[in-house]
Amino acid sequence: NQIEAEFTKSDNEQEMFFLKKDFEDLILKKFQVKFYKIDITKLTPNYKPPILNEKNQIFSAYLDLNNLLIDNINEKALKGLLRKYIKPEELKGLRGLKLFELFLKEILKYNDYSSLVSPLFVLNDLRQLKGHLKNRSFNKIYLSCKTRIGIHKDAEHLDVFKELIKSIIRMFETLNSRITE
């Protein structure tokens, strides 16, 4: 018997890592800048995605992803590239995600840059929540994160994680198509 199967596009972390790598390669080719400090495809065996709907496991994964996708941004190289497009004083005090936004706005000329990079800001907020799992403000901030990625307020932790990954995948797909235009 043959099994009829309809293959769908992956919505997992590996797809996200491959798209991120494609993004890095496109930036290097187009702008001669290494966007990230280290190649995370070599580190992904160290990354353990959550497999259970267990709060601590999922929030630990947010911490790991934040290290790979945000803390790994090559700020020095990005500032060097941005200096060709804007005044150096406009870069003062900017780091990671704010530099990423400025790159999208000034270099890629992407109009809705805040919306596009929003999944990474959500990831950063979720990473910060890791240390505040029992804090009173946790629920308010967590609800804000859910709203920003477009998932129901009562969604389970694992569903939030999966939706965030899908959002980051869509972000890298958009970026990669924009760069190749």
What report would you give on this structure?
The chain has 181 residues and is mainly α. Helix content is 58%, strand content 0%. The chain has helices spanning 13-31, 55-69, 75-82, 96-107, 113-129, 138-148, 157-179. Mean pLDDT is 87; it is low at 1-10.
Report the average pLDDT across residues.
87
**Helical element count?**
7
Q: Percent of residues in helical segments?
A: 55-70%
The largest β sheet comes out as: none
Strand content: under 5%
In total, how many beta strands? Answer: 0
From the spread of the alpha carbons, the general shape counts as globular
Q: pLDDT under 50 segments (min length 5)?
A: 1-10
What structural keywords apply?
181 residues; mainly alpha; 7 helices
Please write out the topology:
Layout: H1 13-31, H2 55-69, H3 75-82, H4 96-107, H5 113-129, H6 138-148, H7 157-179
Helix pairs in contact: 1-7, 2-5, 3-4, 4-5, 5-6, 5-7
